[in-house]
Amino acid sequence: MSSDFAFWKVGVGDPGEIYDGLADGETDVLEPHPDVTRFRGELLSRWPDLVDVLEPTEDDLADAPDDAAKYVLLTLPVGMLGHLDGIYELAREHGLRGYSGVADEAF
Questions:
Q1: CA 105, CA 15: separation in Å to the nearest integer?
Q2: pLDDT bucket at 99, cuts 50 / 70 / 90
Q3: What is the pLDDT confidence band of residue 2, given thresholds at 50, 70 and 90?
Q4: How confident is the model over 11-48, as pLDDT tens digits?
Q5: C or N terminus of the chain, fewer CB within 10 Å?
Q6: Mean pLDDT on 75-94
Q7: 98 near 7, Cβ under 8 Å?
Q8: d(CA 81, CA 24)
Q9: What is the distance of C-alpha 42 from the center of its chain?
């Protein structure tokens, strides 16, 4: 069992629809922002094990390099949910918005 969380800085539209679009690889409603890139880097610096549950993956970025600055999508297994408070804190520090697929609500 896992829980999905999406983070972005600048997006147009309903957060739930943005989240659903990300699951389908649709990123056109999001704008690249350096805060997303910094968030991604700090996530992987603090918790390197997140690389296996983070999107866009390095393979995804080969086709769409701007996506690294648009969003971060995490599919956290139960064993990694202990990172969540720190992840949310880091997202707040970078002024990111997002959506929890589990709670079905924006944050």
A1: 8
A2: very high
A3: confident
A4: 999 999 999 999 888 999 999 999 999 999 999 999 99
A5: N
A6: 95
A7: yes
A8: 24
A9: 12
Query: Which tokens hold the place of 35?
Result: 């805060």
User: Mean pLDDT over residues 75-97, rounded?
Assistant: 95
Give the global pTM: 0.93
Is-contact 18 6, C-beta < 8 A? yes
Distance CA 79, CA 61 (A): 27
Please provide the DSSP assignment of the chain as one string: -EEEEEEESEE-S-HHHHHHHHHTT--TTEE--HHHHHHHHHHHHH-GGGGGGEES-HHHHHH-GGGGGTEEEEEEEGGGGGGHHHHHHHHHHTT-EEEETTTTEE-
Tokens of 21: 């679009």
φ, ψ (nearest 5 deg) of residue 102 = -70, -50
What is the rounded distance in angstroms from the CA atom of residue 45 to the CA atom of residue 32?
Answer: 21
